[in-house]
UniProtKB/TrEMBL annotation:
Pathway: Glycan biosynthesis; glycogen biosynthesis. GO terms for molecular function: alpha-1,4-glucan glucosyltransferase (ADP-glucose donor) activity; alpha-1,4-glucan glucosyltransferase (UDP-glucose donor) activity. This is Glycogen synthase. It catalyses: [(1->4)-alpha-D-glucosyl](n) + ADP-alpha-D-glucose = [(1->4)-alpha-D-glucosyl](n+1) + ADP + H(+). One of its GO terms (cellular component) is cytosol. Residues 6-237 form the Starch synthase catalytic domain. It comes from Aurantimonas aggregata.
Length: 480
C-alpha cells in the first residue's frame, strides 16, 4: 500500500543546514520512497532557500499568517518534493534560520515557527488541492505545534508523528503569546501547550502526536529518566509504547569516499592506502607538522552538549602524547577561545577553524585518523556515522546513539574483528584521557587499526534498515 507523508522541518539539506536535523530531513524522504512512501517536505522560505528554488508553482495562499500574507510554493530539488512557505514578513531577513546576524534569537521565533506549524496543519487538512497526506511527521520544536493544531481541529486529520532530534531545544515562550497562536482556550492546559506557566511547543506536540519517535533506542530510554528527560520525562513515560527510538542513517551517496568531490583522493576499504593522500592534504590545509602520530579531529557545534570543553582542556596532553588535533566548529565563545589558545600554544600540532564549512568537514573525515565525539548526551549523532563511512575511527562517549552505532574495540570485539571504534565513559576529563591513551595504543598497531577501519567502512550506516522501521511504524499507524 502506498502512503503519502507530509514532513514539516525548519531546515533541510541541501537547501539550508545548521545541524543534523537538516541531514535527516533531507535524506529520510529519499529512503522512504524505496518503501512506497511519498514524502512532501514543508519548510520555511529563508532567503537562501528562495534563491535556490527559483520560481515554482504557487499551490496555496494564506491571507494573514501571523501578520502577513504567505504562499506555499511547490518545487522539486535533488529528488525532494518541496513545499516552501514563502512568508517574507517572517523569513526574509539576514542571519540564520534561528538567529540574527548578531547571533541572537530572532525575537519573533515564536511566530515564525508557529506559522510553519499552522501552515503544516492546514496543508495536512487539504489546503493544497489534490493533496491529503496519510501522515504528518513534525521534526523538533519548530514543527511541533503541527499536531497540536490538528488535534484541536474538528475536521478529519491524518495521523501525526513528532520526531525528537534533541530534547534540549523545546521552544518555550511566555504565556502572553498564547492568545496569538489561534488555539482554543482549552489548549491552555496540561494536555495542551501549557508548560510550567509558559507555552511549550515541543511539550504540546509530544502530548498531541499519535506517535513520538526519537533518533536512537538508547536516547529513547535516556529521556525517560529525570537525568535525561529535560523536564519532559514524566510526559514521555506517560506515552508508553508510543515512544520509539530509531537510529539515523546517512545519505551514502553524499558521503562516499569513492566519489566525494570535496576530497583530494578517492579510496575504499579495499584501497585504504590512498587515504594517506588525504591525511597529507589535511596536514597542509591546517599547517600541521608532518609526523607519524594520528590526527584526532572534531567537527561539531562547540557546546556543552558535545563535551568539547573536555577536548579543549585536554589538547596539550593529547599533543604531548604524539597526536595532533584538528577542530572545525563554532559555538560557545569560551570553547572557541580555549581551542584558539591551544592552537596558539601548539601552532603546528593543533589546527583550528572557527566557523561552519560543509566541504571542509568531508576533507576532515577523509584525512583524520579518528573523530572525537565526547558528548554529554547525544540523541543519535551523525559525525560518527560519517567517520565510520570514511574510515575515520569514531572515538565516542557511551551515551545515546553513539553507544548504539559504534562497536568498542574491547578485547572480545577486537579479537572477533568486529570493532569499529573506541567508546569511553563517563564523559569526564580523566575518562577522556584514558580513552585517548587506549586509542593511541590501538593506533600503534597498524594492522589492528587497519582492520578496525575496514570494519568501520563496512558497517551499514545507510538509511536502509531504519527506513524500513519507519515505514512499518507509519503503516501500522494508518491502520489504527
Ligand atoms: N563547523 C561545522 N562545519 C561543517 N559541518 C558541521 C560543523 N558543525 C557541525 N557540522 C555538521 O552538522 C551535523 C551535526 O549533526 P549531529 O547529528 O552530529 O548533531 P546535531 O546536534 O546538530 O543534531 C541533532 O539532531 C541529529 C539528527 O537527528 C542527531 O543525530 C543529534 O544527536 C542531535 O543532537 C553533521 O552533519 C556535522 O558534520
Amino acid at each position: 500500500m502506498s502512503l503519502s507523508l507530509l514532513s514539516v522541518a525548519s531546515e533541510v539539506f541541501p537547501l539550508i543546514k545548521t545541524g543534523g536535523l537538516a541531514d535527516v530531513a533531507g535524506a529520510l524522504p529519499l529512503a522512504l520512497a524505496e518503501h512506497d512512501i511519498a514524502v512532501r517536505t514543508l519548510m520555511p522560505g529563508y532567503p537562501d532557500v528562495m534563491r535556490q528554488i527559483g520560481s515554482g508553482d504557487a499551490l496555496c495562499r494564506f491571507d494573514d499568517l501571523f501578520g502577513g500574507p504567505a504562499v506555499v510554493i511547490g518545487t522539486t530539488l535533488g529528488g525532494l518534493d518541496l513545499l516552501v512557505l514563502d512568508a517574507p514578513h517572517l523569513y526574509d531577513r539576514s542571519g540564520g534560520p534561528y538567529v540574527t546576524a548578531g547571533g541572537f534569537d530572532h525575537p519573533d521565533n515564536w511566530a515564525r515557527f508557529a506559522a510553519l506549524s499552522k501552515a503544516g496543519a492546514a496543508i495536512a487538512q487539504g489546503a493544497i488541492p489534490g493533496f491529503l497526506p496519510d501522515i504528518v511527521q513534525a521534526h523538533d520544536w519548530q514543527a511541533a505545534l503541527t499536531p497540536v493544531y490538528l488535534a484541536v481541529s474538528n475536521r478529519p486529520r491524518p495521523k501525526t508523528v513528532v520526531t525528537v532530534h534533541n530534547l534540549a531545544f523545546q521552544g518555550s515562550y511566555p504565556s502572553s503569546i498564547f492568545a496569538s497562536l489561534g488555539l482554543p482556550d482549552t489548549a491552555w492546559s496540561i494536555e495542551g501547550v501549557e508548560y510550567y506557566g509558559n507555552v511549550g511547543y515541543l511539550k504540546g506536540g509530544l502530548h498531541a502526536a499519535d506517535l513520538v519517535t526519537t533518533v536512537s533506542p538508547t536516547y529513547a530510554d535516556e529521556i525517560l529518566t529525570p537525568a535525561g528527560g529535560m523536564g519532559l520525562d514524566g510526559l514521555l513515560r506517560g506515552r508508553g509504547d508510543r515512544l520509539v527510538g530509531i537510529v539515523n542513517g546517512i545519505d551514502t551517496s553524499v558521503w562516499d569516499p569513492q566519489t566525494d568531490p570535496a576530497i583530494a583522493c578517492h579510496y575504499s576499504s579495499r584501497a585504504l592506502k590512498a587515504r594517506t593522500h588525504n591525511k597529507r592534504a589535511l596536514e597542509g590545509e591546517f599547517g600541521l607538522r608532518r609526523e607519524d602520530g594520528p590526527i584526532l579531529a572534531v567537527v561539531s557545534r562547540l557546546t556543552w552538549q558535545k563535551g568539547l570543553d573536555l577536548v579543549a582542556e585536554a589538547c596539550d596532553a593529547i599533543v604531548a602524547r604524539g597526536a595532533r588535533v584538528v577542530v572545525v566548529g563554532s559555538g560557545e565563545s569560551a570553547i572557541e577561545g580555549q581551542f584558539l589558545a591551544a592552537h596558539a600554544r601548539n601552532p603546528d600540532r593543533v589546527g583550528v577553524r572557527i566557523g561552519y564549512d560543509e566541504t571542509l568537514s568531508h576533507r576532515v573525515q577523509a584525512g583524520a585518523d579518528a573523530i572525537l565525539i565526547p558528548s554529554r548526551f547525544e540523541p543519535c549523532g551523525l559525525t560518527q556515522l560519517y567517520g565510520l563511512r570514511y574510515g575515520c575511527i569514531p572515538f565516542v562517549s557511551k551515551v545515546g546513539g553513539l553507544a548504539d552505532t559504534v562497536i568498542d574495540a574491547n578485547h572480545a570485539a577486537a579479537s572477533a574483528g568486529v570493532a569499529t571504534g573506541v567508546i569511553f565513559g563517563p564523559p569526564t576529563g580523566p575518562a577522556l584521557m584514558a580513552g585517548v591513551d587506549r586509542a593511541l595504543r590501538l593506533y600503534a598497531d597498524p594492522k589492528g587499526w587497519r582492520s578496525m577501519q575496514v570494519s568501520a567502512m563496512n558497517a551499514d550506516v545507510s538509511w536502509r534498515a531504519s527506513a524500513r522501521i519507519y515505514a512499518d511504524l507509519f503503516r501500522d499507524l494508518t491502520r489504527e
